[in-house]
């Protein structure tokens, strides 16, 4: 589906889309003023005025073309206004995850040499005040929300967003021509944003993404995914991550779609029913949680309810595979009895989900497809702006991330001798084809300019042929890319066998008893697992079976609970090769979270952190 306006840069995208809609009642964004209040819709006329107002303020304050301006904020309307204003005047957006501690924020501010720093809440303002004196280029901090502690505003370098907007409104007429000149002078080769990697090891690196990188990715994605002006996207993944930035923000703007912001990541379920979106961009964790809630509800039901659910799943899968006739009638009944209730929980209007950031377990994908909730899975990296491949609606193949995007080339390089053994480009013709697995490489207009002030890391990532080395392992299956795992995640056991933990962990995620799992076993004779149980499930079981306990730590050590997990591990391991089977485990009393450091902001496990934190437990597993 083509974009609703033509554009070659992000300022062109904004100007052309606002020219199309500013004199209409078309909604651009929507936000919740308060938890118990309905969504407040914001039209393109108001957006245009706010963006130009802030642009005027920044120009007056001395922000020049190419200057870096940082944002530390949750997804919200003000984030979009800052970004669009920066694109308009040729400044570079440097976005930070709200979960970053002050020292990490300080490093990024110093490394990017940011001049201005926008922050959201009082919590984020506190970080800014802690690091300001150590960031020599930083001139001003602007807070979206007025902090509860008034002293936070005592420093002369702190301003409120409302004050900046009031000043910008006054001086905009004087600076209108300068803003217009800057917006028209942007080139596709100019840098649009610096997106810092999450930095699971060492300091984060800033990926330099140009207008061409992002715009080419938007247009290519639109050729594969049908997004229209009638769509509404619910935004909750961090906008400082390239997945949400391109797929859930710029690609939506390019379609004229509406963007509704959740109140927080914790309110996604509630906000789905309020916003009633047609598209949701997510990571697999959301689908895993929904799947586990549904299966838990069924397990707690009667034998009849279980049989109906199983029957509905079978019918849904047949329908998703293209079978019709009697199956069509059965599907209508399955919807009425089972699937319509699930759709109501998502707001009742979902056309499709888009999943990325990590592999989606195939079984969970099949469940949603059977329910009539399509999941379009894609794949890419921050450094590829980000999308390299994606499935298309109606041609989803669970267990793959789809075909290569138009204009992009993806190759497979054999790990043993670095020979390229397969390559596909987005025009869908094979240069060479093989099902053999190896490292996934990427070449195309979406590949970053390089890492900011880090030529060495750039050369390690992008070779002399222009291929970006992803560090992921995969293969082509019927012209679609299948991801195996990360190279650095590969476990070599005591027998020298190479084992990728990702597919093993995905298998176990469909268990109602298991919330999270990480496979370990480097240099060992067998694989084992660190398991975070679904605490609600095991507590319900304890209540129903009169198991007394003082704490979660006490409960997970109970022999009856341990036996449940022994049986579960044995059952699922039957599907694995002998050297892949999980033969021992330890239950953990705390889940992996972003805040505690075990998960990245896109909810992938930081394996090194988990290994360090639970090193004693891992040693205990293999002590014998």
UniProtKB/TrEMBL annotation:
Q: Is Nucleotide-binding one of the keywords UniProt gives this record?
A: yes
Transmembrane ranges?
Answer: none
Q: Which SUPFAM superfamilies match?
A: Acetyl-CoA synthetase-like
Q: Which domain of life is it from?
A: Bacteria
Record-annotated AMP-dependent synthetase/ligase domain positions:
29-452
Output the Gene Ontology cellular-component terms: membrane
Under the heading InterPro entries, the entry gives: AMP-binding_CS, AMP-dep_synth/lig_dom, ANL_N_sf
Q: A Gene Ontology molecular-function term? A: long-chain fatty acid-CoA ligase activity
Keywords on record = ATP-binding, Nucleotide-binding
Quote the PANTHER family the UniProt record gives. Answer: AMP-BINDING DOMAIN-CONTAINING PROTEIN-RELATED, LONG-CHAIN-FATTY-ACID--COA LIGASE
Its recorded name reads Long-chain acyl-CoA synthetase
User: Organism, per UniProt?
Assistant: Fodinibius salinus
């Amino acid at each position: 589906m083509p974009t609703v306006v033509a554009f070659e840069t992000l300022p062109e995208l904004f100007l052309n889309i606002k020219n199309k809609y500013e004199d209409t009642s078309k909604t651009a964004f929507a936000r919740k003023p308060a938890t118990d209040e309905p969504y407040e819709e914001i039209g393109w006329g108001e957006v245009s005025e706010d963006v130009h107002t802030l642009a005027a303020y920044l120009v007056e304050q001395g922000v020049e073309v190419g200057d870096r301006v940082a944002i530390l904020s949750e997804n919200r309307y003000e984030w979009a206004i800052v970004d669009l204003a920066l694109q308009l005047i040729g400044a570079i957006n440097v976005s930070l995850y709200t979960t970053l501690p002050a020292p990490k924020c300080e490093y990024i501010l110093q490394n990017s040499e940011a001049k201005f720093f926008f922050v959201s809440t009082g919590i984020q303002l506190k970080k800014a005040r802690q690091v300001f004196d150590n960031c020599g280029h930083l001139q001003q901090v602007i807070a979206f929300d007025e902090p509860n502690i008034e002293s936070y505003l005592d420093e002369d370098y702190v301003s409120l967003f409302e004050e900046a907007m009031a000043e910008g409104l006054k001086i905009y007429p004087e600076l209108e021509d300068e803003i217009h000149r800057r917006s028209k002078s942007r080139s596709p080769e100019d840098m649009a944003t610096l997106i810092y990697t999450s930095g699971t090891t060492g300091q984060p690196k800033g990926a330099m993404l140009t207008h061409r990188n992002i715009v080419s990715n938007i247009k290519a994605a639109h050729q594969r995914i049908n997004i229209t002006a009638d769509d509404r996207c619910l935004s909750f993944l961090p906008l400082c991550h390239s997945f949400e930035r391109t797929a859930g923000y710029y690609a939506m703007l390019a379609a004229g779609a509406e963007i509704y912001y959740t109140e927080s990541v914790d309110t996604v379920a509630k906000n789905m029913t309020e916003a009633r979106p047609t598209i949701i961009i997510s990571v697999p964790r959301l689908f895993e949680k929904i799947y586990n809630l549904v299966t838990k509800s069924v397990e707690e039901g009667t034998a009849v309810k279980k049989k109906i659910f199983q029957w509905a799943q079978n019918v849904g899968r047949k329908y998703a595979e293209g079978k019709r006739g009697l199956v069509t009638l059965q599907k209508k009944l399955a919807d009425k009895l089972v699937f319509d209730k699930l759709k109501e929980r998502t707001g009742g209007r979902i056309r499709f989900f888009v999943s990325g950031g990590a592999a989606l377990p195939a079984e969970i994908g099949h469940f949603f497809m059977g329910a009539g909730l399509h999941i379009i899975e894609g794949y890419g990296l921050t450094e590829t702006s980000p999308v390299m491949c994606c499935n298309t609606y109606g041609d989803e193949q669970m267990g793959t991330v789809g075909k290569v995007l138009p204009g992009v080339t993806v190759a497979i390089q054999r790990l043993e001798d670095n020979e390229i053994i397969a390559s596909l480009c987005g025009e869908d013709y094979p240069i060479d084809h093989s099902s053999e697995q190896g490292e996934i490489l990427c070449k195309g207009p979406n590949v970053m300019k390089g890492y900011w002030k880090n030529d060495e890391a750039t050369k390690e990532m992008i070779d002399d042929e222009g291929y970006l080395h992803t560090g992921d392992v995969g293969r082509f299956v019927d012209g679609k890319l299948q991801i195996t795992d990360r190279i650095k995640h590969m476990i070599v056991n005591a027998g020298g066998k190479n084992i990728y933990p990702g597919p093993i962990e995905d298998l176990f995620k469909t268990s109602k008893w298991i919330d999270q799992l990480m496979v370990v076993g480097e240099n060992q004779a067998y694989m084992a697992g660190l398991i975070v149980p679904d605490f609600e499930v095991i507590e319900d079981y304890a209540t129903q079976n009169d198991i007394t306990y003082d704490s979660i730590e006490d409960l997970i050590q109970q022999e009856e609970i341990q036996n449940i997990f022994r049986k579960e591990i044995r059952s699922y391991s039957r599907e694995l090769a002998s050297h892949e089977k999980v033969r021992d485990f330890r239950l953990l009393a705390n889940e992996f979270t972003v805040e505690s450091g075990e998960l990245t902001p896109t909810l992938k496990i930081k394996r090194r952190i988990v290994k360090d934190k639970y090193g004693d437990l891992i040693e205990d597993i293999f002590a014998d």
